[in-house]
Write a structure and sequence with these properties.
eight-stranded mixed β-sheet; alpha+beta; five-stranded mixed β-sheet
């Protein structure tokens, strides 16, 4: 019997061309349980999930014209976590899979290569996996929903749909943007520094509301201010400064009817032009609110991904052999990818679990691996009254997160900081109590 295969979704096509041995587009979602993880039970749970979500259990294959995904049909495994998150994925060392399931003490993590899914799809996978684990270990019954899937039911066609193709229009949008300031630093030799700020959700939501902003807008403005400070330190002359922009992914399922578990997200790039002078926080926040409000609309987002769909359907590109496509896609990525932004912020929002699960789950995290050109990436989510804000970087200098977290403290928001730095903890903990 011929193996099942599927083409990469429209957003995934660029990643095999852009990836290199030292970098692959990875992200992590994880939970911390109340007890140590049993790897044998975790593996049993993973086998259950494989029957429900075969769209994740596929290997990347190289065709004559395009990369594609094919059923892997090889042994599953779970691994003890290594020295740091989101290290480059070696398919040959991972039985061909484009994800990995890890455990460390009481933590379960799933790391995904972006060809498979986005943060929303990855979170469905993780919640389903943890639900199966808890049912096996404790003999409980976890209620199932659109976020926690029932593994007694077979796969659905909706899980694997390419929603970009389904919702693309006929007119695309321009990709023309100025290149942004890039944070520089001393390469950390392949080690990914992870710094986590634990913030009371109520406190930061109150601060954002008082400023007339959403949480994402508020955090984005603080990040722009932190990068503005870095650029001022690096360059004295205003006329030579570059735009400071933050890439903010947008879950397209909020705007279009879709239940796909593959990639279905776009982005906006709010920012400032420091050549015009130094921006106060209030000025930055005004820019961010207006720009996100203008860009994060159904029509604007549709035009953006429609252009990608139209490009992929171009007859000349479709007929070009894969090695030529790779050259074109890599060039496009270098021109309109990370070069357009200084860093990124991906917010998965409030995460909720049924009480049957929540009693065992102490914490949840969302982490992005460092970007291709930009050494710093930020991701966050809220769970059980705490915002977990994770900064990943591939350089030694920690100026960005120091400035960012100090800004929160100065605005009366309590912050507790953790770090995996190879030396000491990140200058101990920075804490402020009301």
């Amino acid at each position: 019997m011929e193996p099942n295969w599927t083409p990469l979704d429209n957003a995934a096509k660029i990643y095999p061309a852009a990836s290199r041995r030292s970098w692959s587009a990875l992200f992590r979602v994880s939970v911390n349980l109340s007890e140590a993880v049993d790897p044998s039970i975790l593996l049993a749970a993973l086998h259950r999930v494989a029957g429900r979500l075969p769209v994740f259990f596929m290997r990347l294959q190289r065709g004559a014209f395009w990369y594609y995904l094919e059923d892997a049909n090889v042994g599953l495994r779970v691994e003890e976590e290594g020295v740091c998150p989101c290290l480059p994925l070696r398919h040959a060392e991972n039985n061909g899979y484009s994800f990995r399931v890890l455990y460390y003490k009481n933590r379960i993590s799933a790391e995904f290569y972006h060809i498979l899914t986005d943060g929303a799809g990855g979170m469905v996978f993780l919640k389903t996996l943890v639900a199966e684990y808890l049912e096996i270990k404790y003999g409980i019954l976890v209620p199932r929903s659109k976020d926690i899937l029932d593994c007694r039911i077979g796969p659905r066609a909706e899980d694997a749909r390419d929603s970009f193709l389904e919702h693309a229009g006929k007119v695309g949008g321009s990709r023309g943007e100025k290149r942004a300031f890039r944070i520089q630093g001393t390469p950390s030799g392949g080690f990914h520094h992870l710094t986590t700020a634990k913030v009371p959700t109520d406190a930061i939501l109150a601060a954002a509301k008082a400023a007339g902003a959403t949480l994402t807008e508020y955090l984005t403005a603080l990040m722009i201010r932190a990068v503005q400070d870095l650029q001022e330190t690096a360059q004295a002359r205003e006329t030579r400064r570059k735009p400071v922009k933050i890439n903010v992914p947008v879950n397209l399922r909020r705007f279009f009817p879709s239940e796909t578990l593959r990639n279905f997200s776009s982005y906006v790039n709010p920012g400032i032009d420091p050549r015009l002078g130094r921006y106060s926080f209030e000025e930055v926040l005004t820019q961010v609110r207006h720009q996100i409000g203008a860009q994060a609309t159904r029509k604007h987002l549709a035009a953006k991904f429609t252009q990608n769909v139209l490009d992929a359907q171009n007859k000349v590109l479709r007929l070009a052999p894969l090695f030529l496509k790779n050259l074109v896609l890599k060039s496009v990525f270098m021109l309109v990818g990370d070069a357009l932004t200084s860093t990124c912020l991906s917010n998965l929002g409030q995460q909720n679990l049924p009480s049957e699960m929540a009693r065992y789950v102490e914490r949840m995290d969302f982490i992005l691996g460092p970007l291709s050109l930009n050494p710093i990436a930020c991701a966050c989510l809220s769970y059980n009254g705490t915002l977990y804000f994770n900064v990943t970087r591939s350089i030694e200098e920690s100026s960005f997160e120091r400035t960012l977290f100090r800004s929160l403290v100065e605005r009366g928001v309590p912050v507790e900081v953790e770090s995996n730095q190879r030396s000491a903890m990140f200058n101990a903990q920075c804490r402020m109590k009301r």
